[in-house]
Amino acid sequence: MFGDEDDQTPTAPNEVFSPDAKNIAVSTLRLRAERVSSGNGRVYLIVVRSGTSFATVTVVVPKSSSAANVNSVNAQAAAAKAYANANNGAPPAGYFVIGGWSNYWQQAVVT
Question: Could you state, in order of their start, the residue ranges of all structural domains in the chain?
Answer without folding.
Answer: 2-110
